[in-house]
Design goal:
With about 400 residues, the protein is an alpha/beta fold. The protein has 14 helices and 21 strands. The strands form 6 sheets. It has an 8-stranded mixed β-sheet with strand order 12-11-8-13-16-17-19-20, with helices on both faces. A 5-stranded parallel β-sheet has the order 2-1-3-4-5, with helices on both faces. Strands 6-7 form a two-stranded antiparallel ribbon. It binds flavin mononucleotide (FMN).
Length: about 400
């Protein structure tokens, strides 16, 4: 396979002893037909000479933001050129700087400026790696869409043994190949992903809603985008940033979400409905602010909201329809019923009472049930990983449809 052929790879090298492996990474990438543009931090130059990287890559090595010829604004040209930006080895320092959005040298500024996927291969002493702040930085970057390869267990440069050793060059190159091959998965396809809660107004300052954070839906939107899909992300109000490069719409109520989904459904290949749409809304929303004076008790009358999935399920035709259900009991039984009733291809069910699963958290523990009656139980994993597995299933459904045509 030619996943790396003619790809432009920016290789950031930072101040770790593992920098001695950078030439081998370059050699393997060049052998696969990629163009590698090395960028070194100042610290990295203490570990390996730029001339070595220049000789194996046969490209100029960038060492500074300010190179005396600012007609080529290097961080902008490099960031725009990149098909992928790989940082290997990545120090605790660079990870912290990226997590904080710092742009104070050529590498960090290029990272801030790029829209290409960024892959980080950490290398450090185990105690550094286990430092809670380093771990928080890694978690933050992962949840923002940065990808990590390694580190692995083994003998470290400082003679200690433990977790912190940079993955081997061949493993890193294999990881990049996988990313590029996945970029083709949904090429030419488009999907709607819904996310977050809806809000159903009681008056101008109060509403009924739920704890959905939007994290699961945003993770799916990001994963689909990374696999080459055009993504329309329709979300209720959340506090998280949508992924770059998706068409993003914010709605408030279930009826607004329904309207937006229906507006776009004709143009897409499928709908992934992760939004936690409120089942009910107040029959009437007060015009101003409801006053508490002279009221000891208020009765709020609710009416059923439209079931967007069920309605779309009736008209879906060949399109892919995926639903989520958050249950507190009889999960599988409830999920099976919804799968059938709503004419879904796949339903993702989670037990909201389980620790680490469901609303607000970064992890999830789910069951996948498909229309063939197959059930898969996934262990507790990051929402990003769950998104990956769901996308693998969507790919499989698309391939099966193609084969049966
Ligand atoms: C001999 C030596 C080895 C080092 N190895 C590492 C390492 O493997 N990982 C790491 O995070 N920092 C390591 N450091 C510390 C970094 O070089 C230091 O934090 C530096 O500021 C990193 O700068 P940079 O991230 O801009 O390259 C090492 C320092 C020395 C002196």
């Amino acid at each position: 396979m030619d996943e790396l052929k003619n790809k432009n790879i920016i290789l950031g090298v930072t101040g770790s002893i593992a920098a001695y492996k950078a030439p081998e990474i370059i050699r393997l990438l060049v052998r696969e037909g990629a163009y590698v543009y090395p960028v070194m931090t100042r610290s990295a130059t203490y570990f390996i000479h730029p001339l070595t990287l220049q000789s194996v890559s046969r490209e100029k090595v960038t060492l500074s933001l300010f190179n005396g010829d600012e007609r080529d604004i290097r961080h902008i040209s490099l960031s725009a050129l990149a098909d992928i930006l790989l940082i290997a080895p990545a120090t605790a320092n660079i990870i912290g700087k990226i997590a904080a959005g710092i742009a104070d040298d050529i590498l960090t500024t290029t990272v801030v400026a790029t829209r290409a996927p960024v892959v980080i291969a950490p290398a450090m002493n185990e105690r550094m790696y286990e430092n809670p702040v380093v771990q928080q930085n890694i978690a933050r970057l992962k949840s923002t869409g940065y990808r990590f390869i390694g580190p692995e267990e083994g003998r470290l440069a400082c003679q200690d043994k433990g977790k912190g050793r940079m993955s081997e060059p061949a493993t890193i190159v294999g990881f990049l190949k996988k990313i590029f091959s996945k970029m083709e998965d949904f090429k030419g396809k488009s999907f709607i992903v819904t996310a977050g809660p809806t809000r159903e107004p009681i008056d101008v300052v109060r509403f009924i809603s739920n704890y959905s954070s939007g994290k699961m839906g945003f993770a799916i939107a990001r994963e689909m985008r990374d696999r080459g899909a055009k993504v329309i992300l329709i979300s209720g109000p959340t506090f998280i940033k949508p992924p770059e490069g998706v068409d993003f719409f914010v709605v408030e109520t279930a009826r607004q979400m329904e309207e937006k989904v229906k507006e776009y459904f004709d143009r897409v290949d499928g709908l992934i409905m992760t939004a936690a749409v409120c089942d009910f809304r107040p029959v009437q929303s007060f015009k101003g602010k409801m006053k508490k004076e002279s009221k000891e008790r208020v009765v709020l009358e609710l009416v059923r909201n439209p079931d967007i999935l069920e309605e779309i399920g009736r008209v879906k035709g060949e399109k892919i329809l995926i639903g989520f259900c958050a249950e507190a009991e009889n999960i599988l039984q409830e999920a099976r019923q919804k799968l059938k009733k709503k004419n879904l291809d796949l339903i993702v069910a989670n037990d909201v009472t389980e620790k680490g699963a469901g609303f607000e958290v970064d992890t999830n523990k789910v069951f996948l049930l498909n229309s063939k009656g197959e059930v898969k139980s996934l262990p507790l994993m990051s929402k990003r990983k769950v998104a990956e597995v769901i996308c693998d299933h969507i790919k499989q459904i698309l391939e099966e449809r193609q084969a049966n045509k």
